[in-house]
Each structure stands twice: as structure tokens, then as C-alpha cells.
Amino acid sequence: MYTFINDYSEGAHPKVLKALLETNDEQTVGYGNDQYCISASKKIQDELGVDADIHYVIGGTQANLTIISHLLKDYQAVISTDQGHISVHETGAIEATGHKVLTRPHEDGKLTPAMIKDILDEHTDEHMVQPYLVYISQTTEVGTYYTLDELKELYACVKDNGLLLFIDGARLASALTQHDAPSLKDIASLCDVFTIGGTKNGALFGEAIVILNEQFKQGFRFQMKQKGSMLAKGRLLGIQFDALFTDGLYYEIGKHENDMALSIKETLKKYQFHIVFESTTNQIFVDLDNTILEKIEKEFKVSHIQKISPDKTRIRIVTSWATNQNIVDKFNTYLSEIA
Amino acid sequence: MYTFINDYSEGAHPKVLKALLETNDEQTVGYGNDQYCISASKKIQDELGVDADIHYVIGGTQANLTIISHLLKDYQAVISTDQGHISVHETGAIEATGHKVLTRPHEDGKLTPAMIKDILDEHTDEHMVQPYLVYISQTTEVGTYYTLDELKELYACVKDNGLLLFIDGARLASALTQHDAPSLKDIASLCDVFTIGGTKNGALFGEAIVILNEQFKQGFRFQMKQKGSMLAKGRLLGIQFDALFTDGLYYEIGKHENDMALSIKETLKKYQFHIVFESTTNQIFVDLDNTILEKIEKEFKVSHIQKISPDKTRIRIVTSWATNQNIVDKFNTYLSEIA
Amino acid sequence: MYTFINDYSEGAHPKVLKALLETNDEQTVGYGNDQYCISASKKIQDELGVDADIHYVIGGTQANLTIISHLLKDYQAVISTDQGHISVHETGAIEATGHKVLTRPHEDGKLTPAMIKDILDEHTDEHMVQPYLVYISQTTEVGTYYTLDELKELYACVKDNGLLLFIDGARLASALTQHDAPSLKDIASLCDVFTIGGTKNGALFGEAIVILNEQFKQGFRFQMKQKGSMLAKGRLLGIQFDALFTDGLYYEIGKHENDMALSIKETLKKYQFHIVFESTTNQIFVDLDNTILEKIEKEFKVSHIQKISPDKTRIRIVTSWATNQNIVDKFNTYLSEIA
Amino acid sequence: MYTFINDYSEGAHPKVLKALLETNDEQTVGYGNDQYCISASKKIQDELGVDADIHYVIGGTQANLTIISHLLKDYQAVISTDQGHISVHETGAIEATGHKVLTRPHEDGKLTPAMIKDILDEHTDEHMVQPYLVYISQTTEVGTYYTLDELKELYACVKDNGLLLFIDGARLASALTQHDAPSLKDIASLCDVFTIGGTKNGALFGEAIVILNEQFKQGFRFQMKQKGSMLAKGRLLGIQFDALFTDGLYYEIGKHENDMALSIKETLKKYQFHIVFESTTNQIFVDLDNTILEKIEKEFKVSHIQKISPDKTRIRIVTSWATNQNIVDKFNTYLSEIA
Predict the structure, then answer these.
(1) Is the ipTM beyond the 0.85 threshold?
(2) Which chains does chain C touch, 3 or more C-beta pairs < 8 A?
(3) What does the alpha-carbon distance between residue B10 and residue B321 come to, in Å, rounded to a whole number?
(4) Which of A91, A97, A98 minimises the CB distance to C128?
(5) pTM, whole model, 2 decimals?
(6) Quick one: B2-7+250-338 is in which CATH superfamily?
(7) How far are the Cα atoms of A169, A183, C206, C215, C227 from residue C235, in angstroms, in the given order?
């Protein structure tokens, strides 16, 4: 049975694995101060075109809780959509560092300037938390992405209101290769902190944290160590990101994931299944009759997201670096047989 | 330049790496619910001889903060020596989860029943924290270890006083192969929770958390997720521990590290250098004249621990799975030339 | 200018003040272990008819954060309406102790079993917080109250789902004198913890915390001390609650507040103003044309709650122990002149 | 039985009580924004001679945890003596806000520049917390006080090392009237934040928090509300501090407490009892033969601090605003009879 349940079902991309193998016997200093982390950061820096502090942590929840607690004072809160990963799927990790997550219902997976203003209007005095940080994901939880124009508008609103913007890039690769999405260089001037996700784009694990705002560069390694985000053999993260940012591998994987998803999507559309969120990234949300779903699940695993009606279920299909054309063809053919 | 600075300077033991390679393309479920984690836990369970809940996390600080916050109520505190890793070298990670670390000066790296009683005598009412958990490391921060008898005596004191015992096994392998140290089976009845360290014993990363006390088994995965300790591709931890607990590899590596250290130690003793803590594990603390130290550091890197006098420095030498006889011979020869 | 802005604009009821004066020169032990706290607790206990642990703290936010952090494990969350005091008006005090507040839009100020079930349905695994405690206020933030039947139904749902119920009684007195509301004796078997508010019912300050559930009695004074909720001259709280629970003063004040509000409400209704939440307690929410509001505010202060339209504002009028018939008559007369 | 156990055994000084009585029926705004808080702050400001932000909270633990969490970033720690109130007697309140308390053994109750330097030398990298705030008490836990010269030297060390100084003035009055101690005006330029204790100097309760350092003035009321430190009827604090800072009452009470203690001390010395810490404040630590102690305790209550030997006990005697000459004479006479 092949699983489309998520994009972290397999190990690492062969090139990433090769880099780990080739360096295995070398001795390096620990905790991310090694030459591989330095090299990876230089490569990322080059793409950004601006000076940034870059750190590497194992996973997304770690990245989010370390960053958010670093950016906020005790009484400050973070703004997110109601579907934001930090709001729903991190078991209160942000609250565990002492901070409230303020939400508004998402629009197509996204947060809008209007939502920010609405939250600011509501929070007027010291009897309420002080909203200070805006959190978005690129791509979003539902597979959509912020276009360059949308991000510009959002960040203008953030700055106008004296706030900060943090972009969770767990699936950034999937957005970077969209023609109207912000590039790394764009992002470098359109937020205060962002992450570049490795786990869901070919690495064994790892998120790069990019701090752009000078004010928050200081002390971040203390924050990392305290929150358990500092890896002893830190070079493992450097080696992987170095490989991902060599010869455009990071983009190549992102594009591959999107292409595989696109191929599936076209077939779904062809048979008139209801695609829920229009998107060209590696996540597909589709509403299926349970009879069809049962048939699919004889051969493929997919995530059940929501019961839409007694007869209909919303499912999610995700493609990864390892999803190949072969599998996609098999799925599409199977679909054409049962549709 | 060869470094003896720590036991996480290299990647993974070849057998661990091989296991990762061979399984790379397989699809598994995430977050530690895969067959490799199950298999590893079964192997560990077999050695324990009792029923335990076993979880896997990336690193030691993560393990410590997740476990300690899981075991304690808000107002309860953990007892440690003044050299305990949680007290000194985790940037207040335990305090960041809300708990005080109560300390007494170590004796030969160890915590004694007398220290526990002294702390209990001091904490008598609700104006002070309530000591509830005892934290020790096996081996200790200075390379010594608790013998089976010592651990029995300590745990008796812990139980007599209605407390809990948590053993940090970041360097457990190095103790397990000592003839008078507690085995895994012994430990299974002499504490409430302990960890089995992988990072410093041949894994790329990873600590196994073994929960023995029934009362604290519930909810631990919630705690892990909240504290950022749950790895997306959790199977990476299962695969490594499965390899380590196949054909006695975990013990073999521990013994190898100890043997390499022993060989160096004998040479140091031969030339009458002052070994600070008598130990047969993989850490050596030795006081050296600065003139000797400078010479050593032309060829080998070692940790500077403390200035003993204007002319003398306490250093630490650590051996790892990757330290081979060749290197040790080279070091010993070099030592004989400069001593 | 008389203010109807809240029920803590004045000092203490004369009988409470008298009790403080008469005992001023006595020496007592500190921190709530004095005879006055014991006497007050005995009187409250007598009304409850069951065994309970009773503690006294200064204010509502203190009570809420101390209780909620005492009842929850790290990864557990509290359920509240979107208007719950802990959700909106305590500057993230609950999150600062590490816990998420899960909300649903209120119905007439209240939380319903359906909301609880909806939240439970959503929270299914360890990637999300574990809902464990239900928080309601009696009376609610909008001046309504849970009837005995409603509370029974709610607590049945709470127990059926293995949860806990905490009732914030900051304005409990105002509900206790309603014919169909639960009495103290009723409440004693229909929740796990509740508070009896003094600040808004004739005391200078003070909330009594009543712990009914055996499981959570232990260690509460440690929790109080840690959270800064333990008053040095604790007898001040005991003296006040002893006075409030002597000869029915607590009920008398609650009834007086309600009576004063009722008189105002009848006048408002007479002139066809829109009363927003039907209630017979001491808070009145009413939508007024701005022209009327401006006139009222020449003589009386009221809280602005919300802009309803460009021409209309929702205001709140609150009566207190000190609001007398004289003032109410004056307000009613004035209203009849401007209406 | 008269108790010398502490200085919060009685209610409030008559003048403070009178002020509360006279204003009881007035209506004011809540949460410390009333005219009495403003008036009190103006009076305190006048004595300081510099611009400061002044806030009022109920008690010492609240003040300490609110201030310290306001001044520190997540990974920063506070320095204290091993006897510091925050280290021992607040049930881990500081750790509960996430911060480690670093200690060194006190010298005569005091913290010295050498201790600060020693702690700074130990904390060198991001694997350890970052010491940032120095906490001292004036008077100290053992009744001694920092002279003006000592405070100058300490603050110079604090500034030289880029740290902050917070002075806990729970018993400040007792120091202010010493000829060589810093005045309020002195303190205003020799620390970053300090408190002026009311609870132990004639108030029912209350500590004034004085923020001198511009950088930390912002957001403090948010911090207070979140930590449960904001009193609904905030004017109660303003009224009391206004009375205490009218016509020198605060100093008068401090001097009275000291005078009463001095009279007792002279008698103790006359009969050659061992006074442990030389001091002229309101706390006396004395080592007594148990036979003498038993006799004293037939008529007077005192605190047992420590068993010095099987036959000897260290006790503490504390005088308060309410300790009068009559009682002191009685105690002295009684002492002369049993000595």
C-alpha cells in the first residue's frame, strides 16, 4: 500500500543522504558551530541577498516555540488563523511558553490585514494581552500560498501597526517554485523571521531559522539551548541544508512535489471530484463519496480530514520528494477505473 | 588534529548508519508509531525484563525537560548535585518549565542519601518548594558511576521519603559494562524513569526514555509533542536504537569507549599525572602543567575544565565509538615523548 | 457624578469594615492560618453541607490562575466561552501558567454541553491539547446565570466525559438569591471547585476558593504561595468573609444589588430601551441612541461595551452594595425626563 | 501571649486605618488609576527627586515575581544570596515564571561584588543561563543593611558588568532611618527598580514598586495584570501609601520599630546573650540556651530559626509598628528575671 498521508513518510533524498555518509567519520565541533552549518548558511545568505542570522533546529514545533518565545514579551500574543499549526496542532506548545494565540477564521487558508486590524481593535488595554507578532505559514495548512502581492500587503499592515511577522516555512519549497509567489530574496525584506523547512522537502529532519530583524538576533542560541532545540551533532543539520542549497536541489524537490500533485489533481478534476482549495502545491484537499474513498483505500492511504456529510468525506493527498511518476500514474489509472 | 573534546564529534557507528541507509526509501507512519520504534522497544524491554513505556527523543536536554516537567506538579522541585547537567548546562531549561533545581555539592560526582535528607530537612512548609524528584546521571558528569550497591541505597532513601528517581543515561553505555554497576535489568527496578543515551554511544542522535512507574505513563506523548520532543520521521530514532540493541552493539560500543580511555589513563598514570576522579569510563579528568598541555595541544584537542593554579590546568579527555587503537597509541606515544 | 461603571467603585460594606476595625490591634498568625479564616470557613462549610477545603485570595485573576494551574497537567486545557473572563480579560494569565483556553461563542453568556462535546470531538490525539477542565462564571459576563437545571445538565456532561468543572463566582451573590439558581448547597455537589466572590459583594477585596474534589485538595497552599496568592496578613480575608457569612449578609448584599438593578431595568423597559440580555442580576446591558447616552453621561457614568451602529451604543450599568435607592430614584427620574 | 514572631501580626497603623475609613464611601475608578494612587506616587516621587514609574501591589512575592519576570528575557537569570527571599521562601515563584536564581552564600546577609563577579566568571556561554539581574533586600533577611557606601560599590559593579539591580524593600523603612544607610533619594540613583514595603511597616498590605530604568517602564501594567498583581479596588493601596508618606509617617514607624528592637537588644547584650548579626534594625537573631528559651516562651512567642547545638537554639525576635514600650519593658524585665 502506498501512502499519500504526508510528506515525511520516507527518509532523505539520495543527495542529502550521500552528504551525510561522506562526512560521517569527520570530527567537528558540536552544537551547530561547525563548517557545514557555516557553509549552508553562506549559501542561504547568498540567495537572500541580505545579512541574516541563520540557525538550524530539528523540527517545526521546536522552531515555532523557540522563535515565538524569543520574539514576545511575557504579556504579548501571537496572531494566527484558526487553522494555524501553532494554534491547533502543537499541543499548546506556544501557550506552554506563556503566550496566547489569537485567532480569526482563515480565508482560503490565509490571514488577511482585515483580521489583524480586527484583533488590534479588540485589544485596547492592559486587561487583555498585547498582540505583537503575526504568524503565517507558506504554504498554508490547506495548501494555498501567499502571492508576492499578498505578502507585500500583509507586511505593510504588520509594519504600519508596529507588529512583527514570522513566516513558518515548513513547506516553503512548495511555494518558492510558484511563479507569483515571493522568492527567498523577496521574503528577506517582507518579514522579521522565517523558517526554511527541510523535513518535508528531502531532509531527514531540520528547519533553518532565518532572523532578519536586527533587534532579535541577540541571545537566540541561549533560547535554543533552553528550549531543547540545540542538536549535539549540529553538523547533521548543516550538512543536509548545505546539500539542499547546492545546485538548486531545494527548489528541484519542491517543484517535483508540486508536479506530482498537479498530475493527480488533473485526474481528480477530469472526473469532476470537488477540489476544496485551489492550489498548485503538494497538498490536495478533495471531497469524495465514501464509496469511492473505500475503493481508493484498497490501494492507497490518504488522510481523512473531515466528514462533510454522511456519504462524503474530505481527504488530503500529499506528495513528497519520493513520490515518483510511476506511483502517480498508477494512482491516476486506478482513479480512472473506479471513478 | 584529533579531538578528544567530546563523544559526539563524529557521525554514527557504521552499523547504525547502515540501518538508516537500508530503510531510507521505506514509507512509515510518523511520530514514533512505526515498526522500527516498536521493534527497538521490544528489544530494550527484553533486556529490562519488566513492562515499561519507551519513547524516543532527539537529545538530552529535550529528554530532561520533558521528563521532569511530566513528573512534577507546579510547586515541586528536583534534587541534583551542583554539577548535574540540568543544574548547570541546560540554560535553565528546567526552570523554563517552571521548576526549581535544588542542589548540594557533589561527592565524587555523585548524589548521596545524606544530601537528599538534608534538602528534605530544609524544606518543611508551603513557603518553600516541595522536593519530589531526585535526578542523577549514570555515568556522572565527572566520569564516575553509581555501583549497584550505591544505587540500591540511593533508591531505598528515595522510596522511604516518598520521592521519585530519574536516571539520566546520556552516557549509560559507559557504565553498563562495568562489573559492579547496575545492569539494565537492575535499573528497571531501581528508579522510576531513566534514559538510554544514543548520541554519545554510536547514534547520530537520540535518547530512549524508559518510564517504569505506572503513575507517569499516561499522557507522555502529549508532553513530548508540547515540548517539541516528537520527531516527524520518528522512525529514524527507532531504526538507530533497533540497531544499537541488536547483537549487543550498544554494550560493545560502551566497552570500546572505556577500553580506549583506559589505555590513555594508564599512560597518564605511568607518567604520574594527577587523575582527578578515579574512573574506568570514557571520561578522564587530569591536572596538567601548562607546559605539557601546550605540547599536547599541538597534536590533540582536549577540553579545559578549570584553572587549578597559574601553572596548572584541569583538562578532560573523552573517547567515543570512533576513537580507535591507532589514535590512542599515537597519543600514548606522544605523551611518553613529552612527559 | 455617580458611576454605574462597576461594582468595585467603593470600599467595603459597613459591617465588613467594622469587623476589620474591631480586630485591628489583635495579633494573629499570618498566611491564612488564623482563627478568623477558620471561623469563616466553618460558616461557609455549614452552608455547603459537605466537607471542603477553603482558601482565601485577594482577587479573581489570582484565584483563576492559581486554581486552573493546580487542576491541569502541562498539556491539558480549559474550556470556556469566548467571553469568559479567563479568555479575554486577564492578559493571558492562564496561558502564562502554560495552559491553552479553548473557546466557543457563548449563548446568552453561557457554555452548553453541546459546546463541550464539540471541543472534545475536535481534540482527538496528542498533537492537540487535552481538554480537561470546564470553566464557567456564575453570574456570567453578561449578567445571566445558570439555573439549577442548567447546572445539573452541564455537570452531568462534564462528568460523563471525565472532565472537571470550575465555577468562577466573582459575582456569585447576585445569582444565589435567584429562585431557580443553584444554592451553595447545590453547587457543592455540582462542580469540583468554585469561588465565592467578595470584592464585588461588599468586601474590600477577597475571593474564597472552595475545593470539593478530594483529588485536588493536596498541595494547594504551595500553589498559592508560588503564584503570589498568599496574603501575609491573611486574617484580613478571614475577617471579611466571616462578616459576610454572619447573619446572611452575603445574601443580603446580593439581593440589594439585584433589587437596585431591577428598579433601573424596569424604567429602561418602560421607555422601550433594548435590554440585550434578559437577566435579574446586578448587570444591565442596554443599547442606547447616542443622543440619549450623551444626556445620561452628563449625570451618570456607564461602561461603553460596543458600537452597535453609528448612532447606537451598547452600554453596561452595574449596581453595587453601595448603590442606594436614592441614587436609583434619581437615575430613574432623570431617565424619564430624557427618554 | 505576646508574639514577636513577625512584623505582620497586627492590622494597620491607626493613621492608615483612618484614611481607609474616611474614603470608604467614595467612588473611584479601579485598578490603581484613582486619585489616591496618583497622590501617593507624587509624594514618593518628591522624595526620590527623579522621575519614576510607581505601581502598587498587594504583597512581596507578587512584587518580586512580577518585577523579575518583567526585567528578564527567557534565558536570563537573577543573582541572589543563598538566603534571598526569592531563593528560599517563595515556593519557586521566580522559577515558575521561567527563571533560574543563581546564588552564593551570604556575608552578613549581604551580596558582594565578588559574588557577582564569581557568578559571571562561571557563566560563559549559551549552555548556561545568562546572569542579568542582581537582587538584594534592604534590610536583609538577617536584619543587616547595606550602607550608602556599600550600595554605591555594589551598583558600580552591577553597571560595570552591564547588569541590573533590583532592591526588595519589604523592610525598607527599617533601613531608611539608619544614619549611614542610603535615603530614598540615594536609592533613586543606585538601582534600576526597588520596592517600598507597606505590609511590614504599618499598612494592612501593599508594596510600592518604583521603576527607575526607562527601558523597563513600558508594559508593566500588562505584566501586573497577567501575574494577578492588579487590585480591583486599587485605591486601597494608594490611600495607604498616601497616608504613609504624609508627615513622615513611614519613617516614624520604621524608627519606632528599630527603637523597640534596640531596647530589647540592649537587655539581651546586658545578660551576655549571643547576638548573631550585629544590626540596628527591627530583627534580632540571638542564640539561646534551650532552658532560657523555654522560660521566654511561657510569656512570649519567638521564631525558631535553627538548632545550633543540642542545647542551643537560634531564635528571631521582630518588632512592628504595634510593638509598644510597655511590651518591651515587660519583656526586658522578664528577661532580667530569668537570665
Answers:
(1) yes
(2) A, B, D
(3) 9
(4) A91
(5) 0.97
(6) Aspartate Aminotransferase, domain 1 (3.90.1150.10)
(7) 55, 65, 11, 27, 19
